[in-house]
């Protein structure tokens, strides 16, 4: 009798352990993304033909976040079967305030260029999803800008549970053990368009990967922090890439004057105290000469 | 028999040069600072007169920055290592002169930036000091000064730099040769005034 009772207990423990393993192995994926292509070309049958852009200097530039169709997708095991249903899955924190801060950061970076006169930050409410170039024309009229920097993002958060999540069954473990592993992949993309000609001038992406861990109790909070950190890191990379791409674009404008036309306005001229290669060579020769003479004297 | 091994006099650390180059580097890396310091005619008209001087520290592209800073490092280090005095004063006065020259002489320029005028000032001053020395260094300074005068004359006559003439100028960004002349003239004035002061001292 006692033997049968023991056997049945053992069976229950094994079953519980297996169940907890299955539950503990669950994973969720949360993806948030907006797409410039969806915004500018919502109708795949209708193609906009770009013309030759005429960039009038100094430029008046707008920066805006591409509106999305709230393309948030989640996948993974239902949380209802978990021992403690404490979490709500991925938390997305790119609020309007964050967007404004991010756009301001990009704007500050562009202000240094002499050919940029004004940078307008466009609130998200002014861009309508799938608004296409008709929407951009409205922005152009409202703000008097000719070039727009469209920012889009794609952030995916993966949450997996490690072996430590078994401790959640003790209740205390759910509060103390960081058994939730989060990976946050972020891509920010800046696409620069000349609105009148519908021509894309250049683009610059920035990516980041943030790895973190959390207890089920503070999972949402940690995911928000990871999401924020992901955007910050991606923004830094994107701004660095913007500089590079802008330099490359300036070279392209010089090399292909038929594809891009640049004309300064009557009031605008930017000047630089710049040295050419001959002057640099002269300075270096004088410096080299000094070192040679010094060596010989010694 | 004892043979003396040639010994090099230890080089001085060109502190002022490093300071100016470092400042230009910091400004180049910080867009906020660039916006605050750039020569912006409209902002100067509104009373932000520091931009006349600080505009020299702002650069518009990596190559613009690299050319100017490398040249200033060589010219400034040369001055300081050879013991020519007044490098810091030269930088300050030539920066002010360059800003004033752009403001008065080029009202069509909305913005301006670059250290090249100060490089010209340091280079000219080093060469002028070199003329008072002897041997190969003096000859080298003569040749450099002659080349400099020819180059600046051509640039002023044509209103552009050598490189721009060869490659074609960007419509958005023009080289301003008058700033180079302003730098060289500042060096000349400073050199003459120090010599004059020295002469008066000797006489008294």
Identify the notable features of this structure and list them briefly:
heterodimer, A: 298 residues, alpha/beta, 7-stranded mixed beta sheet, two-stranded parallel sheet, 7 helices, flat, B: 204 residues, mainly alpha, Rhomboid-like fold, 10 helices, 70% helix, disordered N terminus
Written overview of the protein:
Chain A has 298 residues and is α/β, with parallel strands linked by helices. Chain A has one domain (28-264). Chain A contains seven helices and ten strands. The N and C termini of chain A lie far apart (105 Å). Mean pLDDT of chain A is 77; it is low at 78-90. Chain B is mainly alpha-helical and 204 residues long. Chain B has a single domain, classed as Rhomboid-like (Rhomboid-like fold, Up-down Bundle). Chain B is 70% helix and 4% strand. Chain B has helices at residues 15-29, 31-37, 41-45, 51-54, 62-81, 87-105, 116-130, 135-158, 162-167, 177-203, and strands spanning 39-40, 111-113, 173-175. Chain B has a two-stranded antiparallel ribbon. In chain B, helix 1 runs antiparallel to helix 5, helix 5 (62-81) packs parallel to helix 7 and helix 6 crosses helix 7. At the A-B interface, helix 3, helix 6, strand 9, strand 10 and helix 7 of A face helix 2, helix 5, strand 2, helix 7 and helix 8 of B. Strand 10 (270-272) of chain A pairs parallel with strand 2 (111-113) of chain B.
Give the low-confidence spans of chain B: 1-7, 165-169
- Largest interface here, residues on each chain? A-B, 42 and 67 residues
Number of discrete domains of chain A: 1
Helix/sheet category of chain B: mainly alpha
Strand content of chain B: under 5%
Helix content of chain B: 55-70%
N-to-C SSE series of chain B? HHEHHHHEHHHEH
Number of strands of chain A: 10
Any idea what the CATH superfamily of chain B is called? Rhomboid-like
Protein structure class of chain A? alpha/beta
Assembly form of the protein: heterodimer
Helix content of chain A: 25-40%
Order of helices and strands of chain A: HEHEEEHEHEHEEHEEH
What composes the largest sheet of chain A? 7 strands, mixed
**Mean pLDDT of chain A, nearest integer?**
77
Q: What is the count of structural domains of chain B?
A: 1
Number of helices of chain A: 7
* CATH class category name of chain B: Mainly Alpha
By CATH, the topology of chain B is Rhomboid-like fold
């Amino acid at each position: 009798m006692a033997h049968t009772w023991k056997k049945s207990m053992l069976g229950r423990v094994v079953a519980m352990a297996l169940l907890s393993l299955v539950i503990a192995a669950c994973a969720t994926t949360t993806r948030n993304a907006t797409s410039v292509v969806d915004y500018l070309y919502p109708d795949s049958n209708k193609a906009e033909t770009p013309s030759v852009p005429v960039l009038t200097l100094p430029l008046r530039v707008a920066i805006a976040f591409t509106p999305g169709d709230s393309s948030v997708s989640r996948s993974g095991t239902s949380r209802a079967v978990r021992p403690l249903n404490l979490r709500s899955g991925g938390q997305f924190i790119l609020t309007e305030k964050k967007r404004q801060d991010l756009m301001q950061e990009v704007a500050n970076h562009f202000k240094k260029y002499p050919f940029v006169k004004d940078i307008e930050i466009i609130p998200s409410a002014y861009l309508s999803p799938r608004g296409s170039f008709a929407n951009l024309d409205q922005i152009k009229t409202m703000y008097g800008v000719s070039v727009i920097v469209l920012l889009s993002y794609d952030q995916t958060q993966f949450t997996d549970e490690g072996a430590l999540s078994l401790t959640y069954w003790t209740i205390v473990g759910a509060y103390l053990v960081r058994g939730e592993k989060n990976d946050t992949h972020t891509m920010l993309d800046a696409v620069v368009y000349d609105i009148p000609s519908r021509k894309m001038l250049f683009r610059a992406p920035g990516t980041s990967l943030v790895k973190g861990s959390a207890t089920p109790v503070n999972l949402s909070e940690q995911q928000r922090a990871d999401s924020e950190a992901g955007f910050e890191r991606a923004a830094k990379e994107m701004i660095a890439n913007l500089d590079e791409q802008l330099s490359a674009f300036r070279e392209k404008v010089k090399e292909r004057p038929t594809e891009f036309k640049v004309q300064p306005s009557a009031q605008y001229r930017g000047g630089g105290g710049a040295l050419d290669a001959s002057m640099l060579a002269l300075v270096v020769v004088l410096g080299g000469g000094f070192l040679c003479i010094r060596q010989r004297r010694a | 028999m004892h043979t003396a091994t040639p010994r090099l006099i230890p080089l001085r650390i060109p502190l002022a040069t490093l300071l100016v180059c470092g400042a230009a580097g910091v400004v180049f890396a910080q867009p906020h600072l660039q916006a605050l310091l750039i020569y912006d005619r409209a902002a100067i008209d509104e009373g932000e007169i520091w931009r006349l001087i600080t505009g020299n520290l702002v650069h518009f592209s990596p190559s613009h920055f690299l050319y100017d800073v490398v040249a200033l490092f060589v010219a400034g280090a040369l001055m300081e290592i050879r013991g020519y005095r007044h490098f810091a004063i030269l930088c300050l006065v030539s920066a002010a002169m360059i800003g004033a020259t752009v403001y008065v002489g080029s009202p069509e320029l909305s913005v301006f930036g670059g250290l090249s005028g100060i490089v010209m000032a340091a280079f000219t001053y080093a060469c002028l000091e070199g003329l008072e020395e002897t041997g190969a260094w003096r000859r080298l300074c003569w040749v450099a000064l002659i080349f400099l005068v020819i180059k600046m004359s051509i640039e002023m006559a044509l209103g552009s730099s050598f490189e721009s003439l060869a490659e074609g100028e960007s419509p958005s960004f023009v080289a301003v040769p008058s700033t180079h002349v302003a730098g060289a003239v500042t060096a000349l004035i400073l050199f003459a005034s120090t010599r004059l002061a020295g002469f008066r001292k000797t006489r008294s």
